Amino acid sequence: MLLEITDLAVEVDEKEILSDIDLYIDEGETHVLLGPNGSGKSTLFMSILGFPKYNITRGKIIFKGEDITHLGTTERVKMGIGVSFQNPPSIRGVKLMDLLKIEHHEDVKEELSPEIMEQASKLKFDERFLERNVNLGFSGGEVKRSEILQLLAQKPDFIMFDEPDSGVDIENVELLAEEINTLLDKDRKPGLRKNSGLLITHLGYILNFVTADTAHVLMDGKIACSGNPDEILEDVRKEGFKGCVECCNPIH
Amino acid sequence: MLQSDTLKKRALKAREKKAALGEDIELEEFEKEEPGEHEELETLEELPEKYKKDVLNVGVEPSGTGRSGTFLQIDQSGVCTNCQSESIELMNMKDALEKHDWLNDYMWKAVAVDTDKYTAETALRESGGYFIRSLPNSKEIFPIQACMFIGGADVAQTVHNIIIAEENSELHIITGCTTGSDIQRALHVGVSEFYLKKGAKITFTMVHNWAEQVEVRPRTGVILGDDTTYINNYILTSPVRTIQTYPTAYCQGENSRAVFQSILSGKKDSIMDTGSRTILTGRNSSTEMVTRAVSNDESQIYTRGHLSGQSQEVKGHLECMGLVLSDDSMIYSVPELEGSATNLELSHEAAVGKIAEEEVQYLMSRGLTEDEAASMIVRGFLSMDITGLPPELAAETKKMLDLSLQGM
User: Fold this and answer.
1) pLDDT the model gives residue B36
2) CA of A77 to nearest chain B CA: how many angstroms apart?
3) Which of B362, B369, B377 sits opposite A74 (nearest CB)?
4) Which one of A12, A95, A252, B224 is separated from A226 by 20 to 30 angstroms, measured CA to CA?
5) What is the DSSP letter of B135?
6) Alpha-carbon distance A183 to A119, whole Å?
7) Are the C-beta atoms of B269 and B298 separated by less than 8 Å?
8) Rounded CA gap, B227 and B231, in Å?
9) Do A74 and B368 lie within an 8 Å CB cutoff?
10) How far lies B387's CA from each of B260, B288, B353, B390, B398, in Å?
11) pLDDT band at B2 (very low <50, low <70, confident <90, very high)
12) Which of A92, A101, A131 to mutate to test the interface with B (most CBs of B within 10 A)?
């Protein structure tokens, strides 16, 4: 098992946001996390990343067989965890180009490698754009594409995507989905896929292009149900989250 | 170097006069070398290798590539003066005074000789320094590079520079001030007087890289005529014992404009007291001041700004952003606005704070350690866009800034 989360409880500012979270993601799997606003989806991401504000009060996070519950963010990332943020901060004076070089373990003084440059142009970024300050004045779509490009440079084994399609026009959703599929080894047969993902989506639109193996619905800080993504999504679309919880059976 | 008795009298009287700001320095504690101690050079290529590295660090190019001329002073001796540009006159102050009688009319007009003991000392000693003059209606896009170098221990270096941009001329100067890597303690006093005639533009970009026990007391005055622009850029990111400077621009001409941009990083127990002042008297004159400051270790940074609007239709804005990175360090921001006429606009914004945690975490989520993330953010914060330079010089200045920030 790549990621094993058992009985996890998380507090933010001494308020419990998540509890009784059990989540198992195997090598090559893609899971989807659904749930209404404020249900704790992003909190779960930040807890897996190990941001200091997210205080783990119970339970364990095991990644690649190692207990990372109390490990720092940098160490977790170095073990192969990556994330695409929904609203990342902008960093004045830091060029996207330089950040990409660091993420791809290149020498900052050398030119950006052709490999990353090629991926950048696939995502419709030219060299001039890469000279811009990270996220500063980027449009919604540019932010998302830049997040995906950074992950392509970083090459993590387990990737969390927080609303990768929000604020992106339809044409670009397909483009993003294509690169997300690359990141998640979707070009290989299911049994041969190595990389895994956890995807937060509000509308589920991206799921028209990225296939998921399992979906989970998070309600009030708990996983209310897990199951086949198509079925769950259909229920959510028809009846909203409340309806979905009523008719799904918890799997654990 | 004083031609007039009145000036001499005033200088003598101010010999013991403490400066209005900054720690008082005992001038007697420093060695006063005479000019001529160091051999003259044709070009900076003749410099010993170890010095070449030192001057490169402050943006001075020993090969002279991309420069219209070079001036180098070591301790009290002007050792290299060469100029390839036909539109610029570059000389030792001493030679210039011999050549141009009228130059006396520019001595101690933008900086008062009796400002304090440092100006007095500079006036009373045979000081070095350069004379730079851009001829009327000329535009030289390549900068003159000037380097003030301290190579001897405990030396008191005094410099008196005069820079004149004649009518409708454009002049760019980059200047690097530094000490030999084997020098501990020294004193540098640099008096610089700038005169901009109608329609002229000067950009003056200065990088300092002193040894840790060096005391620095620059004294700068700028007189701006009609339709002139003066842009002053200052970069200091290495330790120094104390520096105190407060250049003043006198926007006397109509539509004159003075811009001060400073990038400061305090290290170790440096005390950096830097300010800029603009006196706006010309109709429709304006000024902008931008400072980025970061305090580390036990450093203390005072960043001052004084905008004085004395006639109608003048404008000024001051911006100071500071990051305090250590509990033992300090940033003291002192913006002063003074309006003494109707219909003027003066404003300031200052913020002193910490690195945004959200930004650190973002970079950590991409694999940087907390320290790596913080230093990347700080370098980014300091690497502000320096405006007002022609594209070639902007790129060169960016390189100089990157070099200063790399060493951090």
Assistant:
1) 83
2) 5
3) B369
4) A12
5) P
6) 12
7) yes
8) 13
9) yes
10) 10, 11, 24, 9, 11
11) low
12) A92
Query: What's the Rg (C-alpha) of chain B?
Result: 20
Residues of B in contact with A108 (CB under 8 A): none
Q: Stretch B371-385: mean pLDDT, rounded?
A: 92
Q: How far is B394 from chain A (nearest CA, A)?
A: 15
Contact B215, B25 (CB under 8 A): yes
> Which chain A residues contact residue B383 at CB under 8 A?
93
A92–B369 CB contact, under 8 Å: no
Tokens of B109: 């007009």
With an 8 Å Cβ cutoff, are A88 and B362 in contact?
A: yes
Task: Output the pTM of the full model.
Answer: 0.87
Element (H, E) at B131: strand B130-134
Helices and strands (H and E) in chain B: how many? 7, 20
Which domains can be identified in chain A, with CATH numbers? Answer: 29-50+73-247 (3.40.50.300)
Enumerate residue ranges in chain A where pLDDT < 50. Answer: 248-252
- In chain B, domain spans: 5-356, 357-408
Residues 143-182 (A) with a CB less than 8 A from some CB of B: 150, 154
Helix/strand/coil for B90: strand
Residues A252, A23: Cα–Cα separation, whole Å = 10
* Residues of B whose CB is below 8 A from A97: none
How far apart (Å, rounded) are the C-alpha atoms in residues A8 and A218?
A: 13
User: pLDDT digit string (tens) for B188-204?
Assistant: 999 999 999 999 999 99
Asked if A74 lies within 8 A of B383 by C-beta distance, the reply is: no
Report the gap between the CA of B6 and the closest CA in chain A (Å): 51
Element (H, E) at A150: helix A140-154
Phi, psi (deg, nearest 5) at residue B54 = -60, -45
C-beta atoms of A94 and B382 within 8 A: no
Of B359, B379, B384, which is closest to A89 when you measure between CB atoms? B359
* Each residue's pLDDT tens digit, B92-135: 999 999 999 999 999 999 999 999 999 999 999 988 899 999 99
Distant-in-sequence, close-in-space partners of A105: CB < 8 Å, separation ≥ 6: none
For chain B, give the mean pLDDT: 93
Q: CB of B194 within 8 A of CB of B163?
A: yes
Q: Measured between CB atoms, which of A49, A74, A98 is closest to B370?
A: A74
pLDDT digit string, tens, across residues B49-78: 888 888 888 888 898 899 999 999 999 999
Q: What value of ipTM does the predicted structure carry?
A: 0.95
Mean pLDDT on B249-260: 98
Q: Which two tokens stand for residue A76?
A: 């977790």
Give A247 to chain B, closest Cα distance, Å.
Answer: 37
From the list B357, B352, B377, the residue with the least C-alpha distance to A92 is: B377
If DSSP codes are grouped into helix, strand and coil, which group holds residue B391? Answer: helix
Q: Please give the Cα distance from B353 to B132 (Å, whole number).
A: 41
One-character DSSP codes across B160-183: EEEEEE-TT-EEEEEEEEEE-TT-
> What is the average per-residue pLDDT within B393-406?
83
A100 at interface of B, judged by CB pairs closer than 8 A:
no
